[in-house]
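In response to reviewer comment 3 from the previous cycle, which asked for concrete evidence that the modeling workflow produces usable outputs, we include below a single protein chain processed end to end. The sequence was submitted unchanged, and the resulting structure tokens are shown without manual editing.
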Amino acid sequence: MITVENVTVSYPDKTLALRQVSFTVKEGQSLALVGPNGAGKSTLLLALVGVLLPQQGTITIDGLKVAKESLPEIRRRVGMVFQNPDDQLFMPMIYDDLAFGPRNMGFSEEKVRALVEDTLERLQISHLKKRSSLKLSGGEKRMAAIGTVLTMNPSVIVLDEPSSFLDPKARRNLIGLLGRIKQTKIIATHDLDLALEACDQAVILNKGMVAASGSPQELFFDEGLMEACQLEALKRR
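The workflow returned the following structure tokens.
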């Protein structure tokens, strides 16, 4: 589903953010992207949706190379959930936030309504559809932000620090939801316990490079590896 091959990304000021990053994700897999602050996680997510284009290397999603000319189709195939839900929710009501994408794709209002109602029910937030995001809790906002992506039915969903702003109960609900979402997922997170439960593959970034890849179980408990990557290893219970 996703192939990242020797990708190098620099910012306009010449700051090198990613250097020769390579990994693959199979259809339906969930990949945890972990690393210390400044490791390049958010940069990589932006490259996956074409906000930043690699200076070297290629990103291919579902057989389509991420490039300037392919961006409209890439953004139909890849949905991004931002770290801060307030960056994603901007309409007067949650219903309209979830309807925004399908409406802009030109769907009929009947089709839009069906997509929104189905997504609200899947996320168990139908009671929020007439509410403003200004009146919601952090967990409710997170679910609504994910809903804005699900109504577009992308092939891939990328999430930037999805457990931010969540209390323990909302975090638990999020982990359950991630397990129910069948699309291929890439989750950039500092929350190793969430990644351990929600992901079957992990890539550790450090200083813009891939330091290690494998299953969360084999990586996150390796004290030497995690310390070398400026992370704290999980303890076996």
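The mean pLDDT is 94. We consider this sufficient to address the reviewer's concern, and the full set will be provided in the supplementary archive.
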